[in-house]
Amino acid sequence: MTTALFRDDFYLSTTEAIVTGIREDGGIELDQTCFYATSGGQPGDSGFFERADGGRIEIATTRNGDTKDIIIHVPAADQPVPLVGEKLVLHIDWPRRYRLMRMHTACHLLSVVCPFPITGAAVGEEESRVDFDMSETIDKDEVTLALMKLVNENHPVYLQWITDADLAANPDIVKSKNVRPPVGLGRVSLVCIGENSAVDSQPCGGTHVSETQEVGSVFIAKIEKKGKENRRFRIRFGTPETGPIV
């Protein structure tokens, strides 16, 4: 079992940890980690582990094991193998993680602008997508304006915790139509936007910025028809006038 520090502090980019196991495929298990494991459409963190002698172990990605409380750090090719019991200093690729945090928060804001059941989502560094169960025709520029209004209003973004039982008793808070929030850890995180959740509140285990203004400039680049009642929205950093920006 790994203590997932990212669940309580999205901005924690470095920490110490002890190696608790090396898997047959080379995956590294630790007693605790700030590396986010792939889940809910958000990619796992990359970065490196620093050893006591200054050596580095480059980490290509992070994923879960058989359960959510098992987190596996996958080294890049040809990396040294640490010893069980070895103390390491973990360093996330912070610029990449922060872009994913901004994008993931933008996806939540899009679900406010388009209040339809979510049928799929994928968070990326340059572009994200959210699929909605909807048949309506909608103008992408109007969606962009509504999205940026929420960004510029600079609403706070924060977590609240509820129990698995609370979630079971209130199933309507889940916006995703096909994927249920992870349960079994005893508690579920609600990502809340706005004072007293005035803008939005939904279960999510991903990482997010602390206020909507941090999202920066985003726009809807394309709305695709993916079936009679399914629309795919593609979000990118930048503006419709300038196009994608870093």
Automatic annotation (TrEMBL):
SMART domains: tRNA_SAD
Named cofactor requirement(s): Zn(2+)
Keyword flag Zinc: yes
Subcellular location: Cytoplasm
Primary localization: cytoplasm
PROSITE patterns: AA_TRNA_LIGASE_II_ALA (PS50860)
Keyword Flavoprotein set for record: no
Alanyl-transfer RNA synthetases family profile domain: residues covered: 1-238
Domain of life: Bacteria
Keywords: Metal-binding, Zinc
Entries under Gene3D superfamilies matching the protein: 2.40.30.130, Threonyl-trna Synthetase, Chain A, domain 2
Stored SUPFAM superfamilies: ThrRS/AlaRS common domain, Translation proteins
PANTHER family in the record: ALANYL-TRNA EDITING PROTEIN, ALANYL-TRNA EDITING PROTEIN AARSD1
Protein name, as recorded: Alanine--tRNA ligase
